[in-house]
Amino acid sequence: MEFNIAVLGGDGIGPEVTDQGVRALEAVGRAFGHSFNLSYGDIGGISIDKHGIPLPDDTRGLLDANDAVLFGAVGGPKWDSPDAKVRPEMGLLDMRAHMGVFANIRPVKVYPQLAESSVLKPNIINGVDLVVVRELTGGLYYAEPRGRRETPNGIIAEDTMRYTEGEIERVVRVGFELARGRRKKLTSVDKANVLECSRLWRTVATRLGEEYPDVELEHVLVDACAMQLIQAPASYDVIVAENTFGDILSDEASVLAASMGLLPSASLAGVPVAGQRSGGLYEPIHGTAPDIAGKGIANPTGSILSVALMVRYSLGLTEEGAAIERAVDNVLEQNARTADIVTEGTERVSTVEMGDRIVVAIESGN
Q: Do 145 and 239 sit in the same domain of this protein?
C-alpha cells in the first residue's frame, strides 16, 4: 500500500527523534511492502525564524494533503520572551485546530526491564499499562472570555471553562471504544462536586455508558485520581478527562515509566476503527529538551512508538504497529539504553544507535 506522511520536526530535539521515527516507518515499508511518501515542513520556533509565523501556509497545506502527521516538538528559551507577539506553541494549537483533532491519546506502559529505573518502587508500578484520553479543543485553554484587565483594585485575570454536550460525548466515546478493545474499564475524571462543567461531563459519560454495557465505567474526582495514579496505577485501564485535567494527569502518568522519552501520543479527529484509514497527529510527549539538543543523546523511542500508533490508527496497519512495539521491547530486552534510562550493567547508546537497533529488529521480525 502507498501512504503520504507529513513530517514536522520542529525545535530542539524534535528533528533528531523524528528522524528516527521516519527510519522506523521506512523499515516497516521494507518489511511489509508498503510505500511511504514523505513531505517535510516547518513549525514552531524554527518557522518563526524563517517565516515570521509559527505555522506557515506551506505547512498548513501539508496537513490537508497527507494521510497523517509525524511531529516532533516546538518551543525553547529563544522564543520565551513574555513580550513576544508570536510564540512557537501557537503553531501547535493552530495545527490541532486546523486538523480538527479533539482526542489526545497517551499510552503509558511500564517495561519490566526498566522498572528499577522508575522513581517509584517496582511493586507499585508492576503491571502498569494504561491510556489517558485528553480532550483537546475545549475548556479553559480555549473558551472566552479570557484575558487580563486593569481595575481600581488591581489587575484581574480571567479564564473560562466551557463545554458542550457534543464536545464531551465525542471524546468520552473515544475512551469507551479504546477500553472495549483493552481490559474493558473506563475511568471518567471530573470535579463534579464543584464544577458545573464536570456535572455535565458526568451526566454525559453516564448516559453514554448505557451504550457500552461490556465496559465498566467509574467516575473519579480529579484529585483522587491524581493520588491513585501514584498509589495504585495498575488499577487503571483507560482514563478520559477534559482538557486541563487531562493535561495534568497525562504528565503525571508519564512519570510512572522510566523516562518521558519512552512515551508516544496520538491526537485524533474521530474514534479509531481497526483496519480503517483516518488522519491524525502523532508526537512524543517529551517536548523540545533544548539542554540536550544536538548532543545525540535524546531517546527516540517515544517518536518511534508514535509511529506505531500512526500506522495502527491512521493507516489501518494493525500488524505493522504491533511489529514496531515488539521491536522496541526486544531492543530494551537486549539492554540497549539511551542516556535517560541507562543503568549499571546496561549498554549506553546514542539516539541514532537506538534507532539503528530498532530498525534492525523491525526488519528481522524480532
A: yes
Ranges of H-type helices in 181-287 = 196-209, 222-231, 243-254
Round the CA-based radius of gyration of the chain to a whole number and report it. Answer: 20
Does 269 reside within a domain?
no
**290-309: per-residue pLDDT in tens?**
999 999 999 999 999 999 99
CA separation for the pair 366, 323 (Å, rounded) = 8
Rounded distance between C-alpha atoms, residue 96 and residue 270, angstroms: 13
Q: Cα separation of 260 and 136, whole Å?
A: 20
Output the CA angle 78-143-248, nearest 5 degrees.
60
Read off the pLDDT of residues 322-335 as tens digits, 9 standing for 90 and up: 999 999 999 999 99
Q: Residue 31 has what pLDDT? A: 97
Given a cut of 80, whether residue 364 has pLDDT beyond it is yes
Residues 6+ apart with CB under 8 A from 366: 326, 327, 330
Active-site residue set: 141, 191, 223, 247, 251
Task: For residue 174, give its domain range.
Answer: 129-255
Residue 41 domain-assigned?
Answer: yes
Q: Per the domain annotation, does 276 fall within a domain?
A: no
Task: Report whether 278 contacts 269 (CB < 8 A).
Answer: yes
Residues pairing with 133 in the sheet: 105, 240
| C-alpha to C-alpha distances, 244 to 137, 176, 342, nearest whole angstrom | 10, 20, 33
Does residue 31 lie within any of the structural domains? yes
